[in-house]
Design a protein that fits this description.
The termini are far apart. The longest helix has 30 residues. The protein has twelve helices and no strands. It has a domain of 202 residues: MFS general substrate transporter like domains (Growth Hormone, Chain: A, Up-down Bundle).
Length: 314
């Protein structure tokens, strides 16, 4: 009974400590300086006016969603995020098979939190100007390759080469989290860039909802695959196969990379608008007559993921 009481008090202390941090965030939120927008028109008080405003917002939102330049990248992100995951089965493997204690799992969470900050810094410092197709394509390939390192832990190969389960799991989580954050940052940037003027906040919230929905689909597909492979909280015989399948499935959206914009959607939109404003005689590029015509419409036989310096100036 004494041990149970002590454990109960320790858990209570943990919850009390974790409850303090949201309060700290609330206090810090009051320190945010905001500029008051005085030229904004007051909110309508008439019910009919409010309803018409809501209808107009819905109309603008539907018009934005119907644009091919918006729903194609959204569909790509959904298919990519909806690929099955083995997170739930792997969690039971770390606790029931490897015997990781809650304290160590907390340390892993701390390391992964720092790794996320590192991933954000790496993206902002070196990768923010890389086209979406290139960075997301390579992120999928590299994440799949790095994800295969989990097989080393699942098959206990790390013990054979003399690496402790705790250290291997810590290092593996660090690397995978950095890579995952680097892959997630362009998703946020792309979603923000896709939003047209007038419905920025609404469309961004919708895109994030679709992203979260695809994550739910991913976990459900992973649970179904876990059930089919008969992986349970005590039976991990086929866990290696589950990890292998889920990692390879992340490559399935690769053929759909062309659904992503080739450049910045905002810049492409401005270019399209400026092109429409030009007179008809100025739209066509000058070219030499006869057989010397430059056939710029011919596609380059270079993969999307390969950055070839020879073609960068063409």
């Amino acid at each position: 009974p004494t041990s149970t009481t002590t454990r109960s008090r320790s858990w209570q202390a943990v919850f009390e400590i974790t409850a303090i941090f949201p309060l700290i965030v609330s206090v810090v939120a009051g320190l945010i300086a905001e500029e008051k927008i005085s030229d904004r028109s007051p909110l309508p008080s008439d019910t009919t006016t409010k309803i018409s405003g809501i209808r107009e917002q819905i109309k603008q939102l539907w018009g934005a969603i119907r644009q091919k330049s918006i729903w194609l990248p959204t569909a790509f992100l959904f298919f990519w995020q909806a690929t099955p995951t083995a997170d739930s089965a792997f969690f039971f493997f770390t606790t029931n098979e490897l015997g990781f204690e809650p304290e160590f799992l907390g340390r892993v969470r701390l390391v992964t939190s720092i790794a996320k900050l590192l991933g954000v810094w790496l993206y902002q410092r070196f990768l923010k100007n890389v086209p979406f197709r290139v960075i997301l394509g390579w992120s999928m390939v590299i994440s799949c390759v790095l994800g295969m390192t989990t097989l080393i832990l699942v098959t206990h190969t790390n013990r054979t080469i003399g690496i402790d389960d705790h250290w291997f799991s810590l290092g593996d989580s660090l690397i995978l989290t950095v890579m995952g954050q680097i892959a997630f940052m362009p998703v946020l940037v792309l979603c923000a860039r896709l939003c047209p003027a007038g419905v920025e906040a609404t469309l961004f919230a919708l895109l994030m909802s679709i992203w979260n929905l695809s994550g739910l689909v991913s976990h459900e597909l992973g649970a179904l695959l876990t059930h089919l492979l008969e992986v349970t909280e005590t039976n991990f015989e086929n866990l290696w196969l589950l990890v292998l399948i889920t990692n390879l499935s992340t490559l399935l959206p690769l053929p759909l990379l062309s659904w992503l914009p080739a450049g910045d959607p905002k810049d492409m939109e401005k270019e399209a608008i400026s092109t429409r404003e030009l007179p008809a005689s100025e739209i066509f590029e000058h070219h030499s007559p006869g057989s010397l015509t430059e056939q710029l419409f011919l596609p380059y036989l270079v993969p999307e993921l390969v950055k070839n310096s020879e073609f960068s100036d063409i």
